[in-house]
Amino acid sequence: MDKSDNFNKKTTKTIFIALLMLSAFALLIFHANFFLLVFAGIFFSVLLNFASSWIVSKTPLKYGLALFLILLFMTGILYLIIRLIGPSMVEQVQDMTDTLPRSLQNLRDKIKETSIGRSLFEELPSDLGALLENREEVMSRIVGSFSTTVGAIANFFIIIVTGIFLASSPGIYTKGFTRLFPVDFRPRLREVMEKTQYSLSLWMMAKLISMLVVGVFTAIGLEILGMPMPYALALIAALFSFIPNIGPYLALAPAVLIALMQGGNMFIYVLILYFGIQIVESYLITPMIEKKMVHLPPALTLFWMVLLGVLTGILGLIMATPILAALIVIIEELYVKDYLETNKEDANETASEMVVTEVDHKNIQDTP
């Protein structure tokens, strides 16, 4: 009877987890932006909660005051960045918007100097402006770009506000979520949620350190090389390093285009600098700060990023890695440990009992 009840509980738990995963997948497909915004808010709240809890563990401060100090610290850092390097940064970004089109034209001219390049450009329309004769289409693109920018700003504030509200009272939301599950499963669910939160916090802290190192090294290297707009390019390199695998190459593109405008071997030096920083970050800094983090296989990470990028766009590409880190912890705890390995232990116990029964039966038969 006990084994039957245990089997029924495991079957019910498995079906419930499968339905939950299917519901989450359906939500991801049909309401991807909502799902990603919610996860981004939760992700930000996890970072705030981790930092606040660390302060509480090291000082006699209350959690609410610690959270306020963290938010005040983040606001102060942002203000200092805007105050100290903001004006030059804005100027460099504006210069970049003027320089990149000329860099692209320069690259186009260099490509046309080759035989393959000439044949390629002969297939393109000679007057690219003819493609933009439809004023309505041009206006719709301008309006679309404006609405996209406004939507990105609105999403950013939604993530910030959601994260602050969740971090201010994490126990209320955790308790409310766990009450949706069976009573005997709630302690285990809380344990898994704590492990997931801890893994995400470590991942984010490591990523912030990595982004800071990439930005500082890039700025110093570009200053030494005499590249224009070093701080703007360093900011781009730091932000894109949040996206693993493909982020550094996306950040490399504008740097190489601007280096081509400088002439000489500047683009070669820029390539060496960026690849050198990437090697140091990937094989020295990241392994040092990620020892206690959940391991993310590179091929699986790249596949997951491409999948979310295709399904949801840039926001999915940005949030792909933390989502994968959370999923790996959840699957490892709830499916591998609680289901697969538990069933294997039960099977081994059953096999041992059968062997003991057979031995006892044989001993009884051999008894005169």
Question: How would you portray this structure in words?
Answer:
The chain crosses the membrane at residues 12-30, 36-56, 63-82, 142-167, 200-225, 231-260, 267-289, 301-331. It is found in: Membrane. This is AI-2E family transporter. Belongs to the autoinducer-2 exporter (AI-2E) (TC 2.A.86) family. Pfam families: AI-2E_transport. The protein has 368 residues and is an all-alpha fold. The chain has one domain. Helix content is 86%, strand content 0%. It is built from 13 helices and no strands. The chain has helices spanning 2-30, 32-58, 63-84, 86-112, 115-122, 135-168, 170-178, 186-225, 230-240, 247-262, 266-289, 298-312, 314-366. Helix 2 crosses helix 13 and helix 10 runs antiparallel to helix 11 (266-289). The protein is globular and about 75 Å long.
Short description:
With 368 residues, this protein is mostly helical. It is 86% helix and 0% strand.
* N- to C-terminal distance: 36 Å
Contiguous helical run count? 13
Give the uncertain stretches in residue-range form. 124-133, 141-147
Kindly name the structural category.
mainly alpha
Percent in helix: over 70%
Number of strands: 0
Q: On the 0-100 scale, what is the average pLDDT?
A: 75
> Could you state the order of secondary-structure elements as H and E?
HHHHHHHHHHHHH
* Total domains: 1
Which radius of gyration do the C-alpha atoms yield? 28 Å
- The fraction of residues in strands falls at under 5%
Largest sheet: none
Shape: globular
Q: What distinguishing features does this structure have?
A:
transmembrane helix, mainly alpha, 368 residues, membrane, globular
